[in-house]
Amino acid sequence: GFMLLFGFASGLPFALFLGTLFAWLTEAGVDLETMGVFSLIGLAYAFQFLWSPLIDKVDLPGLRRLGKRKQWIMPMQLLLGAILLIMSLSNPASSIGLFSLLAGIGAFASATQDIAINAWRIDVADEEATLDILSTVYQMGYRLSSLVGGALALIIAGRIGWPQTYLVLGITLLAIGAIALFAPNADGDRGAAARADALGESDLQVRALRQAGGIVPSVRYKALALVGLLWGGAIAVVLTFMIESLTSAPDARPDPTEFTTNWGPWIIVATIVLPALIAGWLASQRKRGANLLADDAPPASGAAYVADHLYRALVLPLEEFVGRLGWSLVLILAVVLTYRICDAIWGTFAYPFYLTELGYSKDEVAVASKFFGVGAIVLGLALGGWLL
């Protein structure tokens, strides 16, 4: 039951922020160029692998007792519900800047929730509820949320308006966040939650970085700084472009085509290629026995302790992946990222095309674009789950 609910909660924000919301923007008279910039919030889903290690490694203060995964799932769901409520009180035609900020935070929270839910699904799988079965149930919930957040939202909005529709769906996510409190944890997680004041696994892993055979701290810190600068710079470039585009007068906005042509390749290099090269160099140093600690180093404290945590959460997983997969990881990440960009961004223009260019009503779009396609997917998932 909880897996179905989590699948629903995972798919609903995606449908609302990167689908239905563009129908609202179209009705509010927002131009296509602005919507094109607005759609960059979908990059949160494409780049979620950048902070996924943090979700696995970092505990939220005061929330660890909820469980390793639920400490992230429940707050994100409550945050998403609150964002939808605030958006229901806003007018996109007159406050597109606030609207884009809320949607951007919502997309980030939704992508973070997806990471935690996927990990929770793996953690709770057992011999009775296998991972295949849980994945099927998750997809059922996800596709059902496409019906609710897409078709049903369009039908409701045609009768009571967009603000009221988002208000109802925001309350729905808040309710799911409250119910998530009762979801089970993984077997090994219950004991850890009860021992919240004991030395956590993350602390042990951080201390292992300073044991003999680990990378020299000065080298690790330089690698962490380089990766952080690359990721931070890429994010800053995208955010600057979005802010300038959404807050400037139409004739003063930066050219989206020029931005994509000039900056797009560099963003890919900065976020994927160069960090993977840095991780590969670290892995090669470890294999060659270079820049390694000969003896255990003293425990870190203060800023060094924080840096060790960040290295373990952000750089160490990349180093391990490159060490296992070799340089083919660069190609794998590039292919996955390219697929997600197409899925997360370009598909958002479907609603403006249906409603404005083709002139269909919201009810017609709801039936044609959601009921038939999603219905076939749900039927296929049910059949596949039964066969499993």
Explain what you see.
The protein has 388 residues and is mainly α. It has 2 domains: 1-198 and 347-388, Up-down Bundle (Growth Hormone, Chain: A), CATH 1.20.1250.20; 199-326, no CATH class. 76% of the residues lie in helices and 0% in strands. The chain is built from 16 helices and no strands. It has helices at residues 2-27, 32-38, 43-46, 52-57, 70-88, 96-124, 131-160, 162-179, 187-194, 201-208, 217-247, 256-288, 303-325, 328-344, 350-357, 362-387. Mean pLDDT is 82; it is low at 187-199.
Shape: globular
Biggest sheet layout: none
* Rg calc: 23 Å
Query: Mind telling me which CATH architecture of the largest domain this is?
Result: Up-down Bundle
Briefly note the structural class of the backbone: mainly alpha
CATH homologous superfamily annotation of the largest domain:
MFS general substrate transporter like domains
Under the CATH scheme, which class of the largest domain?
Mainly Alpha
- Sketch the topology as an H/E string, one letter per element: HHHHHHHHHHHHHHHH
Domain count: the total is: 2
Number of strands: 0
Q: Return the CATH topology of the largest domain.
A: Growth Hormone, Chain: A
Q: What's the number of helices?
A: 16
How much β-strand is present in the residues?
under 5%
User: Which spans of ≥5 residues are poorly predicted at pLDDT below 50?
Assistant: 187-199
**Spatial separation of the terminal alpha carbons:** 18 Å
In round numbers, the mean pLDDT is 82
The residue fraction in helices comes out at: over 70%
